[in-house]
Amino acid sequence: STCPARGVSTCPAKGVSTCPARGVSTCPARGESTCPARGVSTCPARGVSTCPARGVSTCPARGVSTCPARGESTCPAGGGVSTCPARGVSTCPARGGSTCPARGVSTCPARRVSTCPARGSQHSTCPARGVSTCPARGVSTCQARGVSTCPARGVSTCPARGVSTCQARGVSIC
Q1: pTM
Q2: DSSP 8-state code for residue 2
Q3: Model confidence at 166, in pLDDT bands (50, 70, 90)?
Q4: Do 86 and 140 fall into the same domain?
Q5: Which helix (H) or strand (E) holds 111?
Q6: Residue among 92, 154, 82, 90 at smallest CA distance from 129
Q7: Which of 65, 137, 149, 151 could crosslink 49 through cysteines, CB 3.0-4.6 Å?
Q8: Of 36, 59, 63, 41, which is closest to residue 51 (Cα–Cα)?
C-alpha cells in the first residue's frame, strides 16, 4: 500500500498500513491504515479509504475513514460517501455516520442529511441506529431510538437506553 502526497492509503485485505513522512506504507494484518500527514484511514475488510486535502472520505465496502484536517467521516456498513466540507455539511447516501468536528456534528443513520452547527453543540435525534457526536465537548452515541444531547458541560442523555456522560472529547454509549 502506498500513500502519496495526498495521504491516500489502500488495504486490499486486512492489513495494517502506516504512512510515514515519505508516504510508504505496509499492510501486515489488521486492516488499519494510518496517514499522519493528511489524515487517518482504516480499512477493516477490503475497503479503500482516501483522505485528500479537502477532507472527502470514501468507504466503498466496510471501513472507517477519518480526515482530521477538514473533518471526520465514517461509513461503518453498506458503504457510502461522506463529505465534510468547510461549512460542516455532511451527506451519507447509504448507511453510515459522518462527523465534522470543525463545525459541529452531523449524523446520517439511514440516508439522512444533517448540518453541523458552528460550536459543536447539537441536539441530535437518533431514530434507529444513529450516532450523535459533539466533538467540542464530548462524544455521545444513541444505539436505539434515543435523543442525545451534549451541552456545554458535556452531559449526554439518552431516554431510550439511560443516561450517559460525555467527558472531554470522550465517547459515551447509551
Answers
A1: 0.16
A2: B
A3: very low
A4: no
A5: none
A6: 92
A7: 65
A8: 41
